[in-house]
């Protein structure tokens, strides 16, 4: 895990493949997560293949590899992998995030439009995205707008429009 997090993916792979015991899912998922962070398609494919050989229903492996493909601009491959995950009936539970505002807990899920103030939340996300673009921000994974419905972003945007400036926001 330390080698992977440090971006030393070649060394991490060598370490894993030379282990005296068979690497488990946690070991391969650690490498796969780092491959997503460092956009290493080849090692990501290897790690995902090993995870899925051990746990064919591991949705996280599909999602991480799909994200690797997306950030590498391999959209067709990403779509094929997402379709394969669905065909294999490997369900991915949607991410859920909570924020407390005025002693009330609000819950947000990716692309969930049921919150009563979702239009205002989305408008705030758009405003923040424009501010970031104007400041020169370029998303490192190339997904930018695709992730505007990300649960944490929705919760933070809600917190910003629902509190006075400089109020600390606690997102879970």
UniProtKB/TrEMBL annotation:
Alphabetized Gene3D superfamilies for the sequence: Tetratricopeptide repeat domain (1.25.40.10)
GO molecular function, one term: RNA binding
Pfam family, one: E_motif
Swiss-Prot/TrEMBL GO biological process terms: RNA modification
Listed transmembrane segments: none
Source taxon at top rank: Eukaryota
Name under which the protein is recorded: Pentatricopeptide repeat protein
Encoding gene, per UniProt annotation: PPR
């Amino acid at each position: 895990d330390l080698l992977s997090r440090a971006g030393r993916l070649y060394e991490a792979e060598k370490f894993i493949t030379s282990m005296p015991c068979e690497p488990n899912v946690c070991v391969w998922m650690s490498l796969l997560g780092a491959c997503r962070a460092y956009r290493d398609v080849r090692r990501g494919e290897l790690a995902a293949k090993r995870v899925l050989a051990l746990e064919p229903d591991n949705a996280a492996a599909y999602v991480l590899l799909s994200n690797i493909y997306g950030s590498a601009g391999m959209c067709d491959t990403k779509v094929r992998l997402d379709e394969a995950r669905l065909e294999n009936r490997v369900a991915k539970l949607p991410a859920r995030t909570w924020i407390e505002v005025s002693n009330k807990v609000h819950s947000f899920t990716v692309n969930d439009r049921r919150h009563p103030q979702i239009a205002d939340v989305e408008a705030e996300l758009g405003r923040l995205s424009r501010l970031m673009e104007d400041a020169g921000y370029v998303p490192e994974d190339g997904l930018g707008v695709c992730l505007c419905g990300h649960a944490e972003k929705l919760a933070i945007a809600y917190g910003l429009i629902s509190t006075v400036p400089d109020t600390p926001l606690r997102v879970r």
